[in-house]
Design brief:
With 174 residues, the protein is mainly beta. Helices cover 13% and strands 44% of the residues. The protein folds into 2 domains: 3-98, no CATH class; 115-170, no CATH class. It has 2 helices and 14 strands; from the N terminus they run ββββββαββαββββββ.
Length: 174
């Protein structure tokens, strides 16, 4: 768990009444947490990866928002969940926007690691474990990921992403 202070754009799930753990939220409002901020224990929680929200709230019975986290921040470490001392509920979003933002999140991960990870012709990667996340790019890149809540992305002509033993994505055009 790491402590830091900055502003983070994140995603938060709520029940159908825009409540989380009994606390009532409103879109456009900012809330301050009094006390220690500790991921999974105290503070306001949200996820940097929009898909991680579905680990905590069901897709069908929930509402989803873009939020801004600031003040004291604390990361949990198992996924992209962050606890914060201050949260501003910016806007409600639907599943199409969540998917778009998740793709952007993964593409940004690729940009962040491309100097140290594989980005070439015929790159191949595999990962397993709950909440695994990967991205590969380049002609004929392949990827396989196993485990609950994993995310895989492959980009490039002939790229393939595979999860749970099934082909999830195959590109044929550049």
């Amino acid at each position: 768990m790491t402590q830091e202070t900055k502003v983070v754009l994140a995603y938060k799930a709520f029940d159908k009444d825009l409540k989380c753990r009994g606390f009532q939220y409103e879109i456009g409002k900012t809330y301050e947490h009094a006390g220690k901020v500790l991921a999974c224990e105290s503070g306001f929680h949200a996820c940097e990866n929009p898909l991680d929200m579905w680990t905590y709230y069901p897709v069908t019975d929930s509402r989803f928002c873009v939020v801004e986290l600031s003040g004291e921040l604390n990361r949990e470490g198992q996924d992209s969940k962050i606890a914060s001392g201050r949260i501003t509920v910016k806007a409600e979003i639907g599943i199409p926007q969540i998917v778009t933002n998740a793709i952007e999140f993964v593409v940004d991960l690729v940009k962040d690691v491309k100097d140290t990870e594989t980005e070439s012709y015929y790159s191949t990667q595999a990962a397993s474990g709950d909440h695994s996340t990967q991205a590969a790019s380049g002609y004929s890149s392949t990827q396989e990921i196993n485990g609950k809540h994993g995310v895989a992305m492959a980009a490039g002509v002939g790229a393939r992403a595979k999860g749970g033993g099934r082909l999830l994505l195959r590109t044929t055009l550049g």
